Amino acid sequence: MAAAAVQIKNFAFAPASQTVAAGQTVTWTNDDSTDHTVTADDNSFDSGRLAPGKTFTHTFATAGTYAYHCAIHPNMTGTVVAR
Ligand SMILES: [Cu+2]
């Protein structure tokens, strides 16, 4: 199963909606010039502050739709759909 990736750049998550298979791991990479976080709306995962160049991984063991945001910039939102 291929790894799924989300890039953080220009104060946005790309792709904003990432679909994976249940059990798959997603890696976020902060390619921006400032800190961001990857924080689940239900707090089921949280990267903490991610400095530029850092990565965060989370495995989505259970199918579902997982909304997340950046705790520093709440207008930054994304979704992972695991199925
Ligand atoms: Cu941010």
Automatic annotation (TrEMBL):
Domain EfeO-type cupredoxin-like: 4-82
SUPFAM superfamilies: Cupredoxins
Gene3D superfamilies: Cupredoxins - blue copper proteins (2.60.40.420)
CDD domains: Amicyanin
Protein name: Plastocyanin
Organism: Georgenia ruanii
